[in-house]
Hints:
By secondary structure, the chain is α+β, with helices and mostly antiparallel strands. It is about 30% helix and about 15% strand.
Amino acid sequence: xxxxxxxxxxxxxxxxxxxxxxxxxxxxxxxxxxxxxxxxxxxxxxxxxxxxxxxxxxxxxxxxxxxxxxxxxxxxxxxxxxxxxxxxxxxxxxxxxxxxxxxxxxxxxxxxxxxxxxxxxxxxxxxxxxxxxxxxxxx
Length: 139
């Protein structure tokens, strides 16, 4: 099953910080529920990640939630006015819980490795392009 928190992305694209925070909190409730499910069904794996970062969030202790959108984006538009609304090339975290999810511990993985991990969980060791079955880089 895949569950998406689409408004996290949509609100970041539109620079609606408070709405984004609210969407993250709502998604956190889903993750808490799914974590409980995984603990009750130990043959289930849970993987939580994002397809990209939007808004170039940076730490800022002067802000209420400790972050703000930065106008210095590394991707997308060359205009500083809209740059914060673009996807960036920042790595996003991967959190995993359940059998064999230690694969994700302490390393950066290419996003294409995640569906390979899922396919292997269903017994398919020949899913997709073999060069992506274990593209891991130590952090």
